[in-house]
Write a structure and sequence with these properties.
This protein is 41% helix and 14% strand. The protein is α+β, with helices and mostly antiparallel strands. Strand 9 and strand 10 form a beta hairpin.
Length: 329
């Protein structure tokens, strides 16, 4: 098939882009886009610098997401320029004091001031969650680790780019839904206390790096999707089962929502059972609720057991259950 050959070549190219970038050990620095890990796992940041080769590479599905994110970044930049906003490309900034490398996507000029900006594209399902957020502090309360990390990245840009380029210390997180193309922007003004907190934690990382060590591995919620999981906990799958761990951002959100409403569903079904039993056969109104009872016929078949056994057959079916791993034990 001609078309299949094209698809196969494209998939091979995508797989070819799955690689781990391992720089010279003397050039390994903290990265602003990973700085949010200071609140989840300092060990993760240490391992990225000491032994990045032990981090498990992502799968092809995640690479497709990354590729599409890069393409969307270019589209978002072009759309901003087409609307008349001036954009200034900037070079990476390295803070020797904090051994930190920062690379804002752009500086965008609005009302005479340049603002550091970071473009983020996501599925429309995810975008519907993001567009409800107006205050950047709310991002830090997200259930999703990658969203919790966004403020740390842009806050570091606020501080260092304002120092290096004399631009505004209010950064912008600029989101776009990939499917419908909707946009949402969140202003992130410089927060001295939060930036000091991040930099203090990064200094702690640097102290570990000087010793060539990392903190002892301790299991936390962030471990579930971490590429260092097998390195930190060899032979100890947190699920205690031999299952494949996959990355699916949209499905993750749906599971989160399901577990939120499941308990209410169970409670509702229990109450429904109690109320229908209490008012079975009645037609009444109780408060704002109306109970309607009606008769209906069903067909039954009284077949002798020996006849049933003649037609008995074993069929294998699949039962799928959902378990909330984050629920308290």
């Amino acid at each position: 098939m001609i078309g299949e050959k094209i698809v196969q070549r494209l998939e091979e190219a995508t797989e070819g882009r799955i690689r781990r970038v391992i720089s010279d050990p003397f050039e390994r620095l903290n990265r602003a886009h990973n700085a949010g890990w200071v609140d989840d796992c300092i060990r993760h940041l240490c391992l990225q610098r000491i032994c990045p080769e032990n981090e498990k590479t992502h799968d092809i599905d995640k690479q497709r997401i990354y590729d599409e994110g890069h393409r969307q970044e270019e589209l978002m930049r072009q759309e901003v320029q087409d609307c008349g906003f001036e954009i200034k490309k900037v070079t990476p900034i390295v803070s020797e004091e904090y051994e930190l490398r920062m690379e804002a996507d752009d500086l965008i000029r609005v009302n005479g001031d340049y603002h550091p900006v970071d473009y983020k594209s996501c599925s429309d399902y995810m975008f519907r969650q993001i567009e409800k957020v107006e205050d950047w502090h709310d991002l830090r309360e997200s259930k999703h680790i990658w969203i919790r990390h966004y403020p740390a990245q842009i806050q570091l840009y606020d501080y260092h780019y304002s120092q290096a380029y004399g631009c505004s210390d209010t950064g912008i997180l600029f989101f776009k839904g990939k499917d419908k193309g909707k946009k949402h922007a969140i202003d992130v003004p410089y927060d001295l206390g939060y930036v000091e907190h991040i930099l203090t934690r990064l200094q702690a990382v640097n102290e570990w790096i000087k010793k060539g060590e990392a903190p002892v591995a301790e299991y936390a919620e962030a471990c579930k999707g971490c590429g260092f999981f097998d390195f930190c906990f060899p032979g100890n799958d947190f699920l205690k089962e031999k299952v494949e761990r996959i990355s699916d951002e949209e499905a993750d959100l749906k599971f989160q929502r399901y577990f939120e409403i499941e308990k209410f569903y169970r409670e509702g079904e229990k109450l429904k059972k109690e109320l229908t039993a209490q008012f079975r056969g009645q037609n009444v109104i109780v408060g704002d609720a109306q109970v309607v009872s009606s008769e209906y016929d069903v067909s039954t078949y009284n077949v002798p057991q020996d006849i049933k056994d003649q037609y008995k057959d074993k069929v294998t079916r699949i039962r799928t259950s959902l378990k909330n791993l984050a629920a308290p034990i």
